[in-house]
Design a protein that fits this description.
heterodimer, A: alpha+beta, Ubiquitin-like (UB roll), 3 helices, 3 strands, elongated, B: mainly alpha, Ferritin, 0% strand
Chain lengths: 122, 254
């Protein structure tokens, strides 16, 4: 039996030569993408993934993984399998580097202005 | 408050604080050994919440003239704990711990809901503060119990066996004290019987959803004793292990 400084391990009475082997790759639950919202009205932000057997349990785990250290008011979970993505080989499709007139930088400034107006009740 | 009311309140608070501290410690024994990483974190985090909640109750006890929190939690012998025997039982398999978590946390939630309207303001205030935390604990328990009980034959059988093992111990949580009348009359707490009634109402729909059968009422034999400091042989080693680090240097600053 394995004798450990951790009494829980000793109590588990594990054989010295135990036959427990690591799981095979992907021999586990599928993943869910987690999005959290810091305050009502904000956009949900992608924060990471959790493994879960269903959406309900994914929500359960997401709350502790991503909600325990910061403020959240709402969480979304989406099965990774259901996320339809573009291919990195197609990154060239998005090349707009020569079309700066399309850049939406102005929106960011407007956001700041609106926030300032709201805060100062202008 | 009259002396009798104070004594009744102290008795009630010890039950609550000791239940929370002991189940918090038991559940924390799963840390690092949980079935999967995400669940390990969730279960450990809830165990930590429980200890934190007990801290809240010990603080109120101290305000009522009882020893200081750390002393009270770590310097008491097992023979003076008021927790139900249910929460001191060793973990065994995860099915047992989950079932205990389900049965205990439903009772815990209702107890604090009732205490939120207590005439004793400090406990009412604490009850309102930890409401959200307990809500998650109960949600976690419900999801797991229903999921495992309906997953396959083996998991269903395991959960049913766990329920059978837990049942009479769980009923022991509602052991009445000599102060029931005082607590009820002074509107501090509505009493263990009311709590038990509501508990049965709350857990039944989830057990039905999980196709789990509550043992037939004619076989019910609540395991009492814990509230009067009678415990199984399992509490003493737990208390020693829990206070081991504290007792190396009781005056250490953390």
């Amino acid at each position: 039996m394995i004798q450990s400084l951790d009494p829980r391990i000793t109590r588990a009475e594990i054989e010295e030569n135990n036959s427990i082997s690591p799981l095979k790759d992907l021999d586990q639950w599928e993943t869910y993408e987690v999005f959290h919202q810091k305050k009502r009205g904000d956009q949900h932000m992608h924060v990471g993934i959790v493994h879960a057997p269903n959406a309900e349990m994914a929500l359960l785990f997401a709350k502790e993984q991503y909600g325990r250290r910061g403020v959240s008011v709402n969480i979304w979970v989406v099965c990774t399998r259901d996320v339809f993505t573009s291919d990195y080989d197609d990154t060239d499709m998005f090349d707009v580097s020569e079309k700066q007139y399309r850049e939406a930088g102005g929106y960011k400034v407007m956001e700041k202005i609106n926030k300032y107006k709201k805060a100062n009740k202008i | 408050m009259s002396d009798k009311t104070v004594a009744a309140t102290i008795d009630l608070l010890y039950k609550i604080a000791d239940d929370l501290l002991i189940i918090g410690h038991r559940n924390s024994e799963w840390t690092g050994l949980g079935p999967i990483l995400e669940e390990d974190i969730s279960f450990s985090s809830m165990a930590q919440d429980k200890i934190g909640q007990s801290q809240g109750v010990f603080t109120i006890l101290h305000q009522l003239g009882e020893p200081e929190m750390d002393t009270n939690a770590f310097h008491r012998s097992a023979e003076s704990f008021h927790n139900a025997q249910f929460v001191e039982l060793p973990n065994g398999e995860y099915d047992f711990s989950l079932m205990r978590h389900f049965l205990y946390d439903h009772a815990d939630q209702i107890r604090f809901e009732m205490l939120a309207n207590s005439s004793f303001e400090p406990i009412a205030k604490l009850a309102r503060k930890i409401k959200g935390e307990i809500k998650y604990h109960v949600y976690h328990a419900n999801v797991w119990v229903v999921k495992l009980s309906t997953a396959n034959k083996e998991s269903h059988e395991r959960m049913q066996t766990a329920l059978n093992i837990c049942w009479n111990y769980a009923l022991g949580m509602f052991e009445e004290s000599n102060y029931e009348k005082t607590l009820i009359n002074e509107e501090i707490f509505v009493g263990e019987n009311e709590l038990k009634k509501k508990w049965l109402e709350n857990i039944t729909p989830f057990l039905e959803k999980a196709s789990l059968k509550i043992p037939s009422e004619s076989t019910w034999k609540p395991v009492y004793g814990g509230r009067n400091c009678n415990h199984t042989e399992h509490l003493k080693p737990l208390v020693l292990e829990m206070s081991e680090v504290f007792n190396i240097d009781p005056d250490a600053e953390w």
